[in-house]
UniProtKB/TrEMBL annotation:
Organism (species): Caballeronia arationis
Gene3D superfamilies: Jelly Rolls (2.60.120.10)
Lineage of the organism: Bacteria, Pseudomonadati, Pseudomonadota, Betaproteobacteria, Burkholderiales
CDD domains with a match to the protein in the record: cupin_bxe_c0505 (cd06980)
Top-level division of the source organism's lineage: Bacteria
Record-given protein name: Cupin
Length: 133
């Protein structure tokens, strides 16, 4: 079966590291996000950002949720991060580990190191995150 990407114009982009690029106010209060410019370069086809944990993990931060995406990849750059996935159970990423989450899988964060940094890639860039009741 052949699959085609949407015919959206794309442009070249480079994102160089600067500490000032990490912004709060994203999906989770305990994280800062560094946008890598992928959404703008792909006209919304994909999004990529680095997530840095900026507050120690506490169980009350965990909210079971899912994302309305077509693709989601998480790669651990530094430290470790653990998530409990519906039907799979808890899984831990350590520096150099990667997982691909099936679209719509319900999950919750169950832990992470204070120095954790993750690379996350999502398709499409604009998507809804829904907290479970």
């Amino acid at each position: 079966m052949e699959r085609y990407l949407p015919d959206a114009p794309q442009r070249f982009v480079i994102s160089h590291y600067t500490e000032a690029d990490f912004k709060t106010g994203g999906l989770r209060d305990y994280s800062a996000y560094r946008d890598l410019g992928v959404a703008g370069a792909t006209n919304g086809l994909a999004e990529a950002h680095v997530i840095r944990m900026i507050a120690p993990y506490r169980p009350e931060l965990s909210v079971r949720h899912h994302h309305n995406v077509q693709f989601q990849l998480v790669y651990c750059l530094k430290g470790w991060f653990e998530t409990d996935f519906e039907g799979i159970g808890p899984r831990r990423l350590m520096a150099g580990s990667c997982w691909v989450q099936p679209p719509g899988i319900h999950h919750t964060v169950v832990g992470g190191s204070d120095d954790c940094e993750l690379l996350e890639i999502l398709v499409p860039a604009e998507h809804e995150t829904i907290n479970d009741p």
